[in-house]
Amino acid sequence: MRLPSRADIGRPLGPLLFVAILLGRDGVASAIPMVSEPAVSALACTAWIVIWWVTEAVPIPVTSLLPVVLFPTTGVLDVTETTTAYGDPIVFLLLGGFLLALAVERTGLHERVSLFVIASVGVSAPGLLLGFMAATALLSMWISNTATAMLMVPIAIAVISQTYRVTPGPRVDLPDGVGDLVHDTDEDPNALPATRFGIALMLGIAYAASVGGVGTLIGSPPNAVLAGVAESQLGVDVGFFEWMQFGLPVAIVGTLAVWATLLVVLRPTVEVEPGREAVAAHKLAALGPASAGERRVAALFGLVALGWLTRPFLITPVFPAVTDATIAIAGGIAAFLVPVNVRRREFLHDWEYALRLPWGVLLLLGAGFALARAFQRTGIDRATADLITAVGLTELLGLVLLLVVTVVVLTNVTSNTATASVFSPIAIAVAGSIGAPPLTLMAAVALAASFAFVLPVATAPNAIVFGSGYLTIPEMARVGAAVSVVGIAVIVVAVVWWLPVVWG
User: Fold this and answer.
1) Which residues are the signal sequence here (predicted)?
2) In the chain, at which end, N or C, are there fewer CB atoms within 10 A of the end residue's CB?
3) Is position 382 within any domain?
4) Which ranges of 32-88 would DSSP assign to H, the alpha helix?
């Protein structure tokens, strides 16, 4: 007899809990003065949505459509206010960013960039690990962490296959097809030696993909959640430049901290067989000169990034209504107009390739903004803040640490965007109750939502490196727990001491 899966349990549990909370709505509202009946209705909707997100009872993008049904039905928000959340400017910022990222992938520019970085760091274990993590973090700032990990893992496998004189260990059977990506080796292409270096390399890719994403506003959806909620609830414009001032140093320090932790915990060593030192350089040379498509997409991406960075100084004084989303969409449209081969009518982008867009992420982001509106409208955020302050936790450092630890734990079992969406409005209310800057607690939530290192299901990069067959869940959990502790320390220092310096 097959045991019920997490999804099997979640399908009935979500609606049942929704109904149970609604049936007890009057009693809860009368027993707890700070909680209104609309707030209880919003909690019922949130319970259903979150349970389906966590258990993946249905695909996460499908669950993300539930607010459109539940909020108007229960009177939490009307349908117009609910659906406009899905058209938030931040959603269009990510849409434009995704279009540009796909154009980069289509031309292969991302592979050239990653190989160049790796080829520049030498062949020592620390150097190779840092090179892979630096390339991964850099790419993850601009293209999806999933695409970044999928690019880097085959390159890593090729490098591992060149390192014969490594710490011995049992051989690892790779999934069918993965070994075919390993070239220039006499070894069985579907088996590689299990080594501390290989494990460190795989985990380094997964973790750098997540940490690197905090460097730019489009690098990770929780960053966009912060920007959207700050605009809608605080009237504060956290633009691309403002976020990068804060996030880029955090991404750099975070990547270095994770790299150092992997070196300490795993102690990777490697001695490359003579003549096999430059696998990345050989692959880079094999690519030949940059193609017209690569050069033009690099120029387009550079122009868009320049527009984001200079908007507050050069664009806003002339066109005050132009936002980062405007620039992103303009760049995305331009990708369909910039020619690669005029005779064949080839352009940087075509719609068939653009259909690979992660539409589900955009729906998830919209659902998060709808939840944030519901929390604010019904007073859930204020009630939660009152509850926290009632137990005497009013010190900023303690609140930041509590939020970061809570979000880091939750983001290992549910979507980072969903987690950030639920906690961002609560962070605003808590900050208001103790007189702290709301962006401080919101930034703590956004960063923590991206620091999921323990489980394969936590992030797509974690799942990709685990799917390579090169490491086990206990190995990932053991190393991930140590990296999480270091990550929490980095976040606390960043939001308590660094953020006030750059954002005042």
Assistant:
1) none
2) N
3) no
4) 37-55, 60-63, 66-74, 79-84
